[in-house]
Amino acid sequence: MSRKCLxxxxxxxxxxxxxxxxxxxxxxxxxxxxxxxxxxxEGHPIDLTKSWGAATACLVARQEGVFECFRTRAELxxxxxxxxAAKLSxxxxxxxxxxxxxxxxxxxxxxxxxxxxTLDLYSGQSYTGRxxxxxxxxxxxxxxxxxxxNTTVSFLGGACSFHLAQGNFGQGYWxxxxxxxxxxASDMGTWDRTVSSVYIN
Length: 201
What we know:
The protein has helices at residues 3-20, 73-99, and strands at 38-41, 44-47, 57-61, 66-70, 119-124, 128-134, 140-142, 154-156, 162-165, 184-185, 197-200. By secondary structure, it is of the alpha+beta class.
């Protein structure tokens, strides 16, 4: 085979490889934490995709290493206060490091601002039923991993704006109502039991 033929063969092979390579969308660049469905309930593992069991409320804060469920909302409220306080403290430390003129590179895993309150989803109207509290930011959270897919009927927004999507990873239609910080809906109407993924900004 001549050098010219060999060169043309290599070029053709290169184009074939490029043509069959899947390109990852830019929005998927933010890699989510592990989305295990195994939560901690009173010191024992519980698979939420199978059943919530005796749990009535769960907290998803994977970026803080927390995925826990509780028998009562009072327990959830106490734990949320602890987790949000720790998250804000971490964010403030990063902000101080950025502001210091002689500081080294700040951690890339935390923003200088952080949500100070959770987004709370409920399985019943007027904030009743099971409660799922979310606080992670910057990636699409799959509600199926928390046994909450197509379950949300009402919600109370947290300190950050958010999006509620019909499909996984933000696909399909997005909830058209207000999803700004501190927004709420006691009944999502035609969107009842429709949400599959959540993104907190």
